[in-house]
Amino acid sequence: MRAISLKIGLDLGSTAIKAVIAEGENIVWRGIRATAPGQESVAKDLMDEGLSSLGAGIDSVSGVASTGYGKKLYSSADKHLDEITSNAIGAFILSGKEARTIINVGGQDLKILTLDDAGSVTDFKMNDKCAAGTGRFFELAARILDTPLSDFAGLSIDSGEEIEINSTCVVFAESEMVSLLARGVKKEDIIRALHCSVARRVSGLLGRFADTGVVYLDGGPALNAGLASALEDELMTEVRVLESPQFTVAFGAAMSLDA
Amino acid sequence: MNAADNMSRSPRALKIFKKTSERAEAEVRKNLESLTGREDYSPDFDYFIELCRGDSSPESIEARTGRAVMRLLCIQAPIELIHAAGFHPYKIASGSQAMTNLALQGLPALMCPMLRAVLGAVMGSESGEPSGVKPWILPTTCDWVVKFPEMLASSGTDCASVHWMELPHLKDGDSCQALWLESVFGLKKFLESLGARVSRKPIEDSIRIYNNAWRALSRLAMMRQEGRMANVWFTLIAGSFFLDSPERWTAAALSINPTPAARSSPKSARVFLAGSPIFFPNFKLLHLLEDAGISVVSDDLCSGERIFPGAVTCKDTSEFGMISALAQRYHQGCLCPTFIDNDRRINNILSRREVTDFHGVVFHVLKGCHPYDLESLGLEMKLKERGLKFLRLETDYAAEDSQNLRTRIEAYHGTLKG
C-alpha cells in the first residue's frame, strides 16, 4: 500500500471528464470518459479505476480537487478551482516552468492565458458563448467528413490544394463542408482548411501583434498535430504541444492542492 | 394604419403581449425573491423593491407622481428643466429578457438589448394606444437612441411626438458648448409649447430637489464603498429613481440604515465596475461577481452612480444663469463614450482609486453597445499600464452564457488575489 501522497485532480469538462492522479509533480495515472449525466458518479468511477490500477486505496489520497464547468457537481472535493487557474498551474509545471503563453482549445471554449515568471495568471482571454473553433467544431467536422479525429493530422499533411473555410461556426461550417464535399473537394484539403480556419480564430483572440514568444498548446484538440502546425503558420511563432494535453487542467487542479 | 400597426393589434399579437408580460413579471418576481431572501435584506429596501415590482407603464408613473410623464431614454437631457415645467422626467429602461423577444422581427441581430427590451415593452403596453401620445425627449447620444423612433414607427407605434436635443460630441470648444446650450433652451421652448411655464423659481426648486437626490445616492455609494451595502442593492435603488417622485425616493433613500453587505468579507476582492448600464431585472453579472467573492465598491454606470451628472451649482441664479449651469453640468460632466474627448472617464477611475481602494476594473459591454465596446480596448491598455487588473465581459440579457462568465470571473478573482 502506498503512503498518503497521492493527489487527485478531476476536470469535469463540457465534453469529457478527465482524472489525473499525481505523486509529487508526476502524473502516475490518467483517465478520461465522455461527459454524461451523473457527472459526480462518472468522476468517482474514474478515480476508483485509477486508484485500483495503482493498487492504492482512498487512504493513500491526500486530497481531491475538481475543476471545469462541472466542478461543483463533485461536491466531496477538498477544493474547487476555476479551469483557467488550473490550466495555468498544470501547464507551467508540465512545461518545466517555461510556459508564459498558453492556448487551450477545449470542448466548448478557447482560452488564451499569459503567465508571469512564477506561473501566476497575469491575463487571459476567452471566447464568449459561441463554440466556434472549439473541440465541438472538430467533432462535427469528423462526423461530416466520416473521418476519425485521430486521422486529421496525417490527412492534412497530404493536402495538395489550398482552399478556404470561412466559418468556424459549428452551424455554418457544416453547410460549408457539405457543399465543398458536393463539389468534389478532397477531404485532405478540407481538413487542412479547417485547421487554418481555427488558427485564424485563435490568432484573432490572441491579438495579431501580441509578442508571445513560444506558445504552449493544450486541450483535447491539441492532440491533432495539424492544428499545432496551422497555428505556427498563423501566429508566426513556435507552438509546443504539452504532453497529454487534455489532462493539463486536471493535473493543475491536483497540483493546486499544494498551494 | 399600416401593416405593422394591424399586426400589433391582432388577437394573436395581444395573446403574445399577454404571455410576454407574464414572463416579464416572472423575471421580476424571481429576481426580487432572490433579493428579499438575502441575509442583508432590510425592510428599509421595501419601498424600492415595490417600485421595481410595480407597474412601470407611463400611466402608472403619472398616477404615482401626479404629473404628466415626459419619456427619456438616457440621462443626457436635463431632468431639472423637465421637472420645473411640471412634468415627471421618466427615463425608460428595461433589463427584461422577455421583453427583448417582443421587439419587432427584422431589427438588427446585434442590437442594444436595453433598447430592444424598451421597444418590446412599449409595443406591448401600446397595444391599447394611450402612452403613444406621450412625448419623448431624445438627445442625440448613441446610434441606437437616434434610430429609436424609426424602429418604434416600424413596429406600428406612433412616435410623432419626439423632441430632439442635438448633442455636440465634442466637449471642448466654445461652439460646441454654445450649440448644446441652444439645445437646452430648445428643450425649454418645447416644454413651453405644451403649455408649461418654465420660470426661475421652479427651476431653482427643481435643481435643489435633484441635488438632494444626488446627495442621497452619494450617501448610498459611500455605504457601498465601505462594505455596508451590497452592490445589488445599490443598483436596484439607483435603477428605481425615475419610478416615483424625486422627493419621495430621496426620503426613502435617506432612511436606509447601514447594514453589512452579505457575502462581503475582508477577503472579498474589491473592483470598480465600468461600461454599459445594468438594469433590473438583469442582475446576472452582479450576482456572478458576488458569487465569485468580488465586491463592486464603485461604478461609472449611467444606471448607477452616474444617473445624475453630479450636483448642479449656480453662482448666477437668474433663469439664464441656472439653465446655463444645467447645460454645462450635463455636457461637461457626462462620461458617456459617445463623446470624442472623453479622457474624463479614465481620469474618473484613477481619481476614484485614490480615495477608494479597489484591485481592478470590470468592464461590462452589453452586446451591441458599440460605443462602450469601442472604448474598452483603449481603457484596458491605459489601466493595465497603471497596474490595474482589467476584465472585459461582453454579454446580453440571456442567461445561457452564465457558466462561461463564471469561469472568467473566478479566474479574474484569482488574478486579483495574486
Descriptive key words:
heterodimer; A: 259 residues; alpha/beta; five-stranded mixed β-sheet; B: 418 residues; four-stranded parallel β-sheet
List the helices and strands and how they pair.
The complex is a heterodimer of chains A (259) and B (418).
Chain A: E1 6-12, E2 16-23, E3 26-34, H1 39-53, E4 61-67, E5 79-80, H2 83-94, E6 101-105, E7 110-115, E8 121-126, H3 135-145, H4 152-157, H5 170-182, H6 187-206, E9 215-218, H7 225-235, E10 239-241, H8 248-256
Parallel strand pairs in A: 1-4, 4-5, 6-9, 9-10
Antiparallel strand pairs in A: 1-2, 2-3, 6-7, 7-8
Chain B: H1 3-9, H2 11-36, H3 46-53, H4 58-65, E1 69-72, H5 79-84, E2 88-91, H6 97-102, H7 113-125, E3 136-139, H8 143-154, E4 162-165, H9 174-193, H10 200-225, H11 231-239, H12 246-254, E5 269-275, H13 284-291, E6 294-299, H14 319-332, H15 343-355, E7 360-366, H16 370-385, E8 389-395, H17 402-417
Parallel strand pairs in B: 1-2, 1-3, 3-4, 5-6, 5-7, 7-8
Helix pairs in contact in B: 2-7, 7-8, 9-14, 10-12, 10-14, 13-17
What would you say this structure looks like, in words?
The complex is a heterodimer of chains A (259) and B (418). Chain A has a five-stranded mixed β-sheet with strand order 3-2-1-4-5, with helices on both faces. In chain A, strands 8-7-6-9-10 form a five-stranded mixed β-sheet. Chain A has 259 residues and is α/β, with parallel strands linked by helices. The model of chain A has no long low-confidence stretch (mean pLDDT 90). Chain A has eight helices and ten strands. In chain A, 37% of the residues lie in helices and 22% in strands. Chain B has 418 residues and is α/β, with parallel strands linked by helices. Chain B has 17 helices and eight strands. Chain B has helices spanning 3-9, 11-36, 46-53, 58-65, 79-84, 97-102, 113-125, 143-154, 174-193, 200-225, 231-239, 246-254, 284-291, 319-332, 343-355, 370-385, 402-417; strands spanning 69-72, 88-91, 136-139, 162-165, 269-275, 294-299, 360-366, 389-395. In chain B, the strands form two sheets. Chain B has a four-stranded parallel β-sheet, with helices on both faces. In chain B, strands 6-5-7-8 form a four-stranded parallel β-sheet, sandwiched between helices. In chain B, α7 (113-125) packs parallel to α8 (143-154), α9 packs across α14 and α13 (284-291) crosses α17. Chain B is globular and about 60 Å long. The N and C termini of chain B lie far apart (63 Å). Classes of the chains: A alpha/beta (259), B alpha/beta (418). Chain A binds chain B through residues 69, 82-85, 109, 120-124, 126-129, and chain B through 384, 394-395, 400-401, 403-404, 407-408, 410-411, 414-415, 418.
